[in-house]
Design brief:
- The protein is an all-alpha fold.
- It has two domains: 55-234 and 308-543, Growth Hormone, Chain: A; 252-307.
- The protein contains 18 helices and no strands.
- It has helices at residues 55-86, 94-118, 120-140, 144-172, 178-206, 210-214, 216-230, 244-250, 253-272, 282-304, 319-349, 354-381, 385-404, 414-417, 420-440, 446-483, 490-499, 509-543.
- Helix 3 (120-140) runs antiparallel to helix 7 (216-230).
- The chain starts with 54 loop residues before the first helix and ends in an 11-residue tail after the last helix.
- The relative contact order is 0.16.
Amino acid sequence: MASSISPTSRDGPGSLPDSEEPAPSPMGDSEPSERAPLLSSSPPKEEDWVAPRHFAWIELAIMSNVFLYGFDGTITASTYAVISSEFDATNTASWLTTSYLITSTAFQPLYGRVSDIFGRRICFFISTVAFALGCLGCGLAGDIVLLNSMRALAGFGGGGLMTMATIVNSDMIPFRKRGMYQALQNGIFGFGAICGASFGGSISDTIGWRWCFTLQVPVSVVALVLGHMVIKDQRTDINAVSSLKETWRIVDFSGALLLVVAISIQLVGLSLGGNELPWGSPWVIGSLVGSVVLLGLFLLVEAKTTAIPIIPLRMLRGRLPVFTQLANVCAGLSAYAYLFLLPLFFQIVLLDSATAAGARLAIPSLATPIGGLVSGIVMSRWGKLITLVRTGAILMAIGNALVTSLQFVDSNWKYYVYIFPANLGQGIIYPGILFTSLATFEHADHAVSASTVYLIRSLGTVWGVSLTSAIVQTTLNARLPVVLRDVPDKWRIIDAIRHSAEAIRDLPPDVQLKARMVYYEGIKYAFATSTAFAVVAFCAAMCAREKGLRKTSG
């Protein structure tokens, strides 16, 4: 395989670069430490570029993982209400998503830097095997604790599925030619999301929800076998590591440990707060404060380390990187809050079956690859990266606002039309943000830059799920005792409603209507919150100006 990632322009990322530049040390603008190894500095040449040997098989291997990344996200969204109801744990249903996202988010930034040091193959294998074992464990889990634990294991692997696909493509394909391949990657992701949304509910209603996870294992095995045959390590200037001490000197394990622990305990606190524990609980406050302290220590370690830093701090400095990543985190928050709430809205407010709710999710899932195709064409022909970010953000804001405007009883066509724009915007903004970040930095930093983009986006997704879940559960806690005050045995009914979405279907019609209205109220507040963050993403994108950047033709 060709060596690591692609060229960038010193003039800025508003449009794709014309020329290739030598890569600096991964330590930043300063002279490299004599104790820090150098990374590969030879990006794939654009002139007379020819696809490397086994290119199609490599693409099949990594795109199989990309498909699973999209499939797993929507198949869980379309079935988590059914799964949590079976275990009487609807009030903690967000953990089916959050447990995956915690480990996915915490370990995502490590894939880029570790693959720079130890090679692409080992990271590809680790992510694929961990994801497959996690899915198999979910299919066999006998209780909610084991299920959530297996989701966490799947998340550890899942954090590398999309990241390693992006990095491997960066090794092979020149920057200016990568737009359409990224569009293909987004299309495969969207196709996986469509399949998960479309079939998740029907699989759950027919052969059982466990097969939603078990059926992913054979695809992972195919990706693993193909990857073993054709994926090679990039060329690198790092010498072979001969001892554990040498490994520790080269790799910033201290920073990695601090980052993983800080993110994990923060997300645990956010998931517990307002859901299982009050926000004033010492456990919630302690976890949030502890995470801030640990993140501060992480930044200190990254600033002083003589090893290769996990996230070079210069990637988070400057107007363009700051506003790009602000748009990134807000887009992730808005998108996943939206995805998490839609099946809840369909299955509880509209009383859809899991199959019907999954079919409805296919509509917005279809919009994502369309947006990705638009991004790929624009990037390849005109290179208007910041424009893509702005367009995607405003579409997300409009789409979320439309869904927020849906009434408890509304025209049927709105349930199909209003949910389309937000995912169209998501398909446009994600590659725009990724390529803006890649174009901001030199070739040697592209792997870690990609994983940093995915890290910050994933933080937003977990914050989105945790925040919207807390809004819905807080509304239920506050409003259900009021609206059901005249109902005999109301506390037993309230407990059943919070623990099982299916319990609503068995209530008397008048009580059921009141419960659905309260759910609608909480979901509407949560949709409004996701709309607000989409607006913030758009404002951040508008602040990321292109003044003075090089303009190139297609």
